[in-house]
Amino acid sequence: MVEEYGLIEEKEDSLRKYYDCEINNIKSIIQNEISERIKTEKIILSDVDDKINEIMKIIRNEKTTRETYSENLVSLIEQYFSRIKKEIDMERLEREDTEETLVHLMEEALDKIGIPLA
User: Fold this and answer.
1) What is the DSSP secondary structure assignment for residue 63, as one 8-state letter?
2) Rounded-to-integer distance, Cα 83 and Cα 92, Å
3) Alpha-carbon distance 118 to 104, whole Å?
4) Residues 78, 89 contacting (CB under 8 angstroms)
5) pLDDT of residue 5
């Protein structure tokens, strides 16, 4: 019986070593898989960060472009209306000059025929 007990202990010890080895192998496989997944996730997150930064840069550039475009458009509109105002002012001055000239000519004509204007 002592012999059988010794064989049982030996088998138990052998099985314990085998399962300990298997458990360690499984732990190692799992740790490697976790490490690989973490690396992959870091790469993916890095790519996502890069894409987000790219998008932010595009948005900033687009905003700047639109602001510049808006400023240029506003400037062109201001120039256009300024030119129109100048033309209107010149037309007004020409009409005033014409009216004054007509009034003066009418006064002279009426004076010549002897009818005072006022």
Assistant:
1) H
2) 14
3) 12
4) no
5) 67
Integer Cα distance of 94 and 12 in angstroms: 120
Tokens of 54: 């790219």
Q: What is the dihedral of CA 47, 52, 58, 61, to 10 degrees?
A: -120
Q: Whose structure tokens read 């996502």?
A: 48
Cβ-contact 40, 48 below 8 angstroms = no
pLDDT of residue 117: 64
- Whether pTM > 0.70 for this model: the answer is no
Quick one: average pLDDT of 78-95? Answer: 88
- Both tokens of residue 69? 């475009």
Place of tokens 């105002």: 85
> Rounded to 5 degrees, what are φ and ψ at 115?
-110, 115
75-98 burial, b at 16+ Cβ within 10 Å, e below that, comes to: eeeeeeeeeeeeeeeeeeeeeeee
